[in-house]
Protein 1
Amino acid sequence: DAKTTQPNSMESNEEEPVHLPCNHSTISGTDYIHWYRQLPSQGPEYVIHGLTSNVNNRMASLAIAEDRKSSTLILHRATLRDAAVYYCILRAYYDKIIFGKGTRLHILP
Amino acid sequence: ETGVTQTPRHLVMGMTNKKSLKCEQHLGHNAMYWYKQSAKKPLELMFVYSLEERVENNSVPSRFSPECPNSSHLFLHLHTLQPEDSALYLCASSQSASGRHQETQYFGPGTRLLVL
């Protein structure tokens, strides 16, 4: 299975942008990059995914490096409700989702 | 009600008890999943059902017995559990179980299980 590396934890101030990094140096050409997050006492929820181009949706933006060996999830204006564990996941074709330990994001008021 | 629901949200049981966890999805999906999340460990996939047929069983002990009577409902029957089985049990659903790399899974809130 393709692997990802994320920092264990990060802190950010409320109402500031947050950049959550993910390294995936062994990514193959057909692997999609998915991000999920898990809020306290809840199940994971889908955030965003992409292949090569940068992606935007109402929750976040995903910036993918040109060589695809790393990506960054961008929360444009963090709120206290964004405090969660963020998982960066690679999905090969017809492969299941495999969760790592993720990054625990703390938002400071 | 929308999305994926799970009941009960919390459960305490003794090692000799038999209990069941229930999951229901209101998304019209064809695949359902059970995951286990122990403290300080990543989520572990336990079972996958596609169109009510079990398509994956990740070496889960027989004291966990899944049941999928239709594509909207999934159960996890528990018997003679051990204290180390205490964890958050999460149910998820997706459009299909083919694992197409663009597909999204939708998770329920989980059942927090404590085995005494």
Note: Chain A has a mean pLDDT of 92.
Protein 2
Amino acid sequence: DQQVKQNSPSLSVQEGRISILNCDYTNSMFDYFLWYKKYPAEGPTFLISISSIKDKNEDGRFTVFLNKSAKHLSLHIVPSQPGDSAVYFCAASAKSNYQLIWGAGTKLIIKP
Amino acid sequence: DGGITQSPKYLFRKEGQNVTLSCEQNLNHDAMYWYRQDPGQGLRLIYYSQIVNDFQKGDIAEGYSVSREKKESFPLTVTSAQKNPTAFYLCASKQGHNSPLHFGNGTRLTVT
């Protein structure tokens, strides 16, 4: 049973526009959420996180929104740049064991 | 520069052979993790260690073994009992509960 779902395997966005990546979760005990970016043949790199006490966190071009009632979070990248082309993973953890549960990833392609 | 080093980047083995993947970190992190990534899937936890001389099984520990004799090192052995060993293996570390994981650049293991 997938507790963290990224339903879009891929997303194509024009350079300069907004990229919106979505993530849904089922476990109401999750209280910490992270987004990672991964290039081929490299390890994921941490992008941004959000705690369940907030509904928004911003860092430069990256903003994460959390909707606890819908069990949904999204990552907004604006403006999108060619270097943003990568696979984006959403992950979540709960205070009970702090282990991260990962989504399957969304491949973002930024078109020139 | 502080970071996590995984070696080698590519590894080829014959079926029936054990193989050990190296992971070293100089971030002074207490916790270390091994994940496996398969195409179209999220990261799956193999083993983790919160402290030296202690480690716990993750979700897919069968066919794998680890040791944690030093804080800096967390080698993973893929044994001949692992039914589908060909995959991309990622090592990570972190310090503190709600803190992001730092990843190495991975080892791609191919078993034929």
Note: Chain A touches chain B at residues 4, 9, 32, 34, 41-46, 49, 51, 89, 91, 93, 95, 98-105 (CB under 8 Å).
